[in-house]
């Protein structure tokens, strides 16, 4: 069953989203961690060093209390790219923008950065404009499968959900429900067993 | 069930059996569509299961090729499906939101408990087994300052902002729909028998008091 | 970068959402080793800090964040696997086929058995303790009898009314739905719809 999408501690998607990187500039020196900067051989990280860090790390280092780095917004959320989305969000290959475009973007919109608020509204706007198209694709059996490659992971999940409900509706209209099927895991297990046999 | 005007199998209190069935059907749909766990209805479930058993016994008394057998057995199967599905949905939610649900349950008195005693036991065991497992493989091998099983951090909560379909059973005035950065709060009245699609959060209390039905 | 190994574990699950991959014992061990190293380095730098040099604190903070991240990834890995294993209890029943069981580590088998027992106790307690099997009646019934096709040579199968049928591979039968549902779920029979 398709339930809550809100991120939680064990959420695989959320761990992926917080793994996305963003440029960070160190404002204090950090001893003995020089190896984090692949372009430098020094033992320490010097003030002014720029490194791309995953969001989970950047977030704690840039808090007001710590203030170890200042973060920069990744280029796909910067003004030039935001303009592309504003012009016509529907034609954009969002997958190329980022696999977790909305989730990562939501985190950026919560940072204390001068661009945060505007990123938030661009996300909402982009989603609204593309949603209709995603649902249209999902409900149309003639949709070219390649088109899915242009969606970010959230849109892909919605697409799959829409596609499934459409298939369920069709099945119900045609024959009614009630077909008992082998448990999904049993089926997968059988397939793998066959595949293993094929290898011999 | 649609054909609830079937000839009842039991001679005693036929009306009650039908009311039980109808109530259970509402309870089942509410649980199915509500994002959070609702209050348990074990009395209703027990009562229905007793009815099933009684009907089954009565069926055995009928001749095998009596055409009524087919109809009633079908009806029985449908009721049994509804009961098992209802309990399955609850177990699913209990597992998924176990920390959150147990935490909420501590603030409730036994009469207002949302979990039935067996569900409560199941939930406590589920959480304990999970913690044992984490401890056995990972936590005890971790450095001392990160070994804790931090329940507040690890709780998974249902998304009560998700949308639901509902039918109004009693007139309700002044449901407050929270606004966002662009819209202001709004108040709406819901008329009896009207149907709506809206966020779960503003109507959660009306669902619990029985003023609306999820569909 | 820190926590690469831990993220590998998460990627592994993400790559195969429908099956349970082999428990990555080596991967888990490497994450725990990285955590140990992070902790030891922090101990050293904390001592330097206590010795009066405050400039080590940023590094301590950074490593601690990495420790917590490692922990999160590792527990999420275990958690997601438990959810899949839990699902297996509902699909395969209380006894797992050996090839499936092979992908579980010892503690996971232990957990599976405990879960199985908890669930059985719960199902027994439903309805004034006449019990109710919740892994049955998984689909809304449409008819009492259904047409099924046998997928394997199963042998004799006794129905509730005492009659027996011989289930041979590729044979077709009209059987009471309630009784053959478990066999369909296990993939022994296939439900035929015209």
From TrEMBL, chain A:
<comment type="function">
    <text>Required for correct functioning of the GINS complex, a complex that plays an essential role in the initiation of DNA replication, and progression of DNA replication forks. GINS complex is a core component of CDC45-MCM-GINS (CMG) helicase, the molecular machine that unwinds template DNA during replication, and around which the replisome is built.</text>
</comment>
<dbReference type="Pfam" id="PF22466">
    <property type="entry name" value="PSF3_N"/>
</dbReference>
<protein>
    <recommendedName>
        <fullName>DNA replication complex GINS protein PSF3</fullName>
    </recommendedName>
</protein>
<comment type="similarity">
    <text>Belongs to the GINS3/PSF3 family.</text>
</comment>
<feature type="domain" description="GINS subunit">
    <location>
        <begin position="77"/>
        <end position="173"/>
    </location>
</feature>
<comment type="function">
    <text>The GINS complex plays an essential role in the initiation of DNA replication.</text>
</comment>
<dbReference type="InterPro" id="IPR036224">
    <property type="entry name" value="GINS_bundle-like_dom_sf"/>
</dbReference>
<feature type="domain" description="DNA replication complex GINS protein PSF3 N-terminal">
    <location>
        <begin position="10"/>
        <end position="62"/>
    </location>
</feature>
<dbReference type="InterPro" id="IPR038437">
    <property type="entry name" value="GINS_Psf3_sf"/>
</dbReference>
<dbReference type="GO" id="GO:1902975">
    <property type="term" value="P:mitotic DNA replication initiation"/>
</dbReference>
<dbReference type="InterPro" id="IPR021151">
    <property type="entry name" value="GINS_A"/>
</dbReference>
<dbReference type="InterPro" id="IPR055221">
    <property type="entry name" value="PSF3_N"/>
</dbReference>
<keyword id="KW-0539">Nucleus</keyword>
<comment type="subunit">
    <text>Component of the GINS complex.</text>
</comment>
<dbReference type="InterPro" id="IPR010492">
    <property type="entry name" value="GINS_Psf3"/>
</dbReference>
TrEMBL record, chain B:
<comment type="function">
    <text>The GINS complex plays an essential role in the initiation of DNA replication.</text>
</comment>
<dbReference type="InterPro" id="IPR038749">
    <property type="entry name" value="Sld5_GINS_A"/>
</dbReference>
<feature type="domain" description="GINS subunit">
    <location>
        <begin position="61"/>
        <end position="135"/>
    </location>
</feature>
<feature type="domain" description="DNA replication complex GINS protein SLD5 C-terminal">
    <location>
        <begin position="158"/>
        <end position="215"/>
    </location>
</feature>
<dbReference type="GO" id="GO:0000811">
    <property type="term" value="C:GINS complex"/>
</dbReference>
<comment type="similarity">
    <text>Belongs to the GINS4/SLD5 family.</text>
</comment>
<dbReference type="Pfam" id="PF16922">
    <property type="entry name" value="SLD5_C"/>
</dbReference>
<keyword id="KW-0158">Chromosome</keyword>
<protein>
    <recommendedName>
        <fullName>DNA replication complex GINS protein SLD5</fullName>
    </recommendedName>
</protein>
<dbReference type="InterPro" id="IPR036224">
    <property type="entry name" value="GINS_bundle-like_dom_sf"/>
</dbReference>
<dbReference type="GO" id="GO:0000727">
    <property type="term" value="P:double-strand break repair via break-induced replication"/>
</dbReference>
<dbReference type="Pfam" id="PF05916">
    <property type="entry name" value="Sld5"/>
</dbReference>
<keyword id="KW-0235">DNA replication</keyword>
<dbReference type="InterPro" id="IPR021151">
    <property type="entry name" value="GINS_A"/>
</dbReference>
<dbReference type="GO" id="GO:0006261">
    <property type="term" value="P:DNA-templated DNA replication"/>
</dbReference>
UniProtKB/TrEMBL annotation, chain C:
<protein>
    <recommendedName>
        <fullName>DNA replication complex GINS protein PSF1</fullName>
    </recommendedName>
</protein>
<keyword id="KW-0539">Nucleus</keyword>
<keyword id="KW-0235">DNA replication</keyword>
<dbReference type="Pfam" id="PF05916">
    <property type="entry name" value="Sld5"/>
</dbReference>
<dbReference type="GO" id="GO:1902983">
    <property type="term" value="P:DNA strand elongation involved in mitotic DNA replication"/>
</dbReference>
<comment type="similarity">
    <text>Belongs to the GINS1/PSF1 family.</text>
</comment>
<comment type="subunit">
    <text>Component of the GINS complex.</text>
</comment>
<dbReference type="GO" id="GO:0000811">
    <property type="term" value="C:GINS complex"/>
</dbReference>
<dbReference type="InterPro" id="IPR021151">
    <property type="entry name" value="GINS_A"/>
</dbReference>
<dbReference type="InterPro" id="IPR005339">
    <property type="entry name" value="GINS_Psf1"/>
</dbReference>
<keyword id="KW-0158">Chromosome</keyword>
<comment type="function">
    <text>Required for correct functioning of the GINS complex, a complex that plays an essential role in the initiation of DNA replication, and progression of DNA replication forks. GINS complex is a core component of CDC45-MCM-GINS (CMG) helicase, the molecular machine that unwinds template DNA during replication, and around which the replisome is built.</text>
</comment>
<dbReference type="InterPro" id="IPR036224">
    <property type="entry name" value="GINS_bundle-like_dom_sf"/>
</dbReference>
<comment type="function">
    <text>Required for correct functioning of the GINS complex, a complex that plays an essential role in the initiation of DNA replication, and progression of DNA replication forks. GINS complex seems to bind preferentially to single-stranded DNA.</text>
</comment>
<feature type="domain" description="DNA replication complex GINS protein PSF1 C-terminal">
    <location>
        <begin position="142"/>
        <end position="193"/>
    </location>
</feature>
